[in-house]
Amino acid sequence: MAKVKTTFFCQNCGTQYAKWQGQCNACKEWNTIVEEVIQKPEKNDWKTPTSTTKKASVPLRIKDIDVSKEPRLNTYDGEFNRVLGGGIVPGSLTLLGGEPGIGKSTLLLQISLKLPYKTLYVSGEESQKQIKMRAERVNPNNNNCYILTETKTQNIFKQIAALQPDIVIIDSIQTLHSDYIESSSGSISQIKECTTELIKFAKETATPVLLIGHITKDGHIAGPKILEHMVDTVLQFEGDRNHVFRILRAHKNRFGSTNELGIYEMQGSGLREVTNPSEILISKKDEELSGNAIAATLEGMRPLMIEVQALVSTAVYGTPQRSATGFNAKRLNMLLAVLEKRAGFRLGAKDVFLNITGGITVDDPAIDLAVVAAILSSNEDTALQKDFCFAAEVGLSGEIRPVQRVEQRILEAEKLGFSSIFVSKYNKISLKNTVIKIQLISKIEDLVGILI
Ligand code: TYD
Ligand code: MG
């Protein structure tokens, strides 16, 4: 009998070893190295659908390469198209990662039910009946979507050859297994092999493949890092499970920018595209409340108005508490120190809580000024005018710094009916005929003077 060939893989980062050891040299995790059988069976009884003799590639001048024949496939989902950079590129592999229960299966099933092309949805996680039940909630009248419950790649390719779908969706890559490798599904070598087979299939037939991937407890896509290198696009579906909003962003995109953001709302009948997020993220209230300020932020190319809430109260215990949700806590401490030093506020003996409403996390520095305004407003217990908004970064010496694409933020604020926007004096603004009042400030003291 032939000797069984095995290798050792770190299950955390995918590094390969010739023999077992306790700690992975690459990622420094303990007890993650596992032996996997990688022997290929002698008998090769299957082929990928088109693994016929392929012509060797020849170099071409860049201007001679014809791209006109490859239009992107419209997914009929505005948010998904935007994040991908205008639709799915034929022959591309897209990986969608996200926490369990966040709605990855729902999103891709919903997209396959909207498509007018022939789609094959391969599920290794749910039965055909379960998927049908989900489909009935989302969009029951579709004749182009086929469901296959199968986990063996060789069988999947057989079905693909018979059906000839225009697009293939795999839920999920961790459930697939290939006969070429003997280790169990979800192991590093299986994930690598199945992805390689799918890439070969996608590139040779120009069929786009969408993969769902599980994530590990620290938020990375489970499996080797190399998986993310192999695919063309890595999307992350995130959001607080207790909130109704879901955010889709691209971590890697070979065919577009990674700045774009898609926003969905989870409803009883699937995910609804949120085309005007600003209106939802700002609570519509009649009374003016202290501690609230609106920031004009940008997520990718899209302006987003976000409500910041602060609560400043006298510290009950010796050490004051500082906590921030959706905002970097270190940055909050820095802004508090600036306020203390430059504007003479004695916040040292106060508890400060900060919350970005809507359950989203913002890392646009333009939110700083709204954070400072919300803190000042709560500290003084006086409400800011509810049609004020802010877009500037605050520096360590209390200076108000300019932010990128300020004109786009101003126009969005005007569109949503704000009367004044506070921006840095150093921003170059060439807008004319704006109804909104643009208040230019250069120091944090100016803001204190105007607001209080
Ligand atoms: P699912 O797509 O199964 O998540 P994942 O594949 O990422 O693990 O999403 C499951 C959640 O979505 C579940 O908690 C119920 C919710 N949901 C709705 O609220 N409305 C719907 O129409 C559907 C189909 C699911
Ligand atoms: Mg799922």
TrEMBL record:
* Record note on domains: The middle region has homology to RecA with ATPase motifs including the RadA KNRFG motif, while the C-terminus is homologous to Lon protease.
The protein's role, per its UniProt record: Plays a role in repairing double-strand DNA breaks, probably involving stabilizing or processing branched DNA or blocked replication forks. DNA-dependent ATPase involved in processing of recombination intermediates, plays a role in repairing DNA breaks. Stimulates the branch migration of RecA-mediated strand transfer reactions, allowing the 3' invading strand to extend heteroduplex DNA faster. Binds ssDNA in the presence of ADP but not other nucleotides, has ATPase activity that is stimulated by ssDNA and various branched DNA structures, but inhibited by SSB. Does not have RecA's homology-searching function.
Gene name, please? radA
Query: Among its keywords, does the record have Cytoplasm?
Result: no
Chloroplast: is it a keyword of this entry?
A: no
Classify the source by domain of life.
Answer: Bacteria
In terms of HAMAP family, this protein maps to:
RadA_bact
The region called Lon-protease-like is annotated at 351-452
Residues forming the RecA family profile domain are: 69-215
The entry assigns this protein to a family as follows: Belongs to the RecA family. RadA subfamily.
Task: Name the SUPFAM superfamilies on file.
Answer: P-loop containing nucleoside triphosphate hydrolases, Ribosomal protein S5 domain 2-like
**Short motif RadA KNRFG motif, span:** 252-256
Indicate what this protein is called per its UniProt record.
DNA repair protein RadA
